[in-house]
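Amino Acid Chain and Its Fold in Token Form
===========================================
Purpose: to set a sequence beside its fold so the mapping can be learned.
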Amino acid sequence: MNTYIDHTLLSPTANETAIRKLCEEAWIHAFKAVCVAPTYVAYTKDMLEFCPIRIEIATVIGFPLGYSTLSTKLHEAEVALRDGANELDVVMNLSQFKSMAYLSIREELSQLASLAHGHDALLKVIIETAYLDRFELHTACEICVESQTDFVKTSTGFAPQGADLETVRLMRSLLPDSIQIKASGGIRTREQALAFVEAGATRLGTSAGVAIVSEA
């Protein structure tokens, strides 16, 4: 279970002490990644410099509402990659998506994917499933496939609802095997974590990683 977890701290009041603790916990429990705000990417890289195992450094782009301009997201991503991030969790532009500006969405995600892949990094696209109906979910997944993203991620954790098992199962049926799923938002227990993995998620974004693995 440990290697499924992106150990996450995106609280607006998180300080360096909390980020250091996050890194220590990821080190101790051998989590797959830590996910921190862009302002802490360089600090996180320093904290993990001598870790004997590889722990990925993820950060968020256009978070949490997604409606930053493409140029803003690209600059944010470039800075994050320069600071040491190797996974980018970008919020899709939901405002444009709801306007059915699908070509603009595809262009945005394609450029971000190209930037990430040029730095040997992964792109995870947060589609915020709480705001999507079934047709929109299908469309969002299709755009992610066309944009060559690496993961489709369910949620920011800031919407009215986080990850949902039925939605993850549907996403898995819509996406090719080459694109992975990250379930995020409201995953607090080992039972929930196992259910999402069984449903098709290969990553779990959670701030409760220690509690989840400690249940074992």
Observations:
- The mean pLDDT is 97.
- The domain at 2-214 is CATH 3.20.20.70 (TIM Barrel).
- The beta strands are 5-9, 33-36, 56-61, 87-91, 122-126, 151-153, 180-184, 203-206.
- The chain has one domain: 2-214.
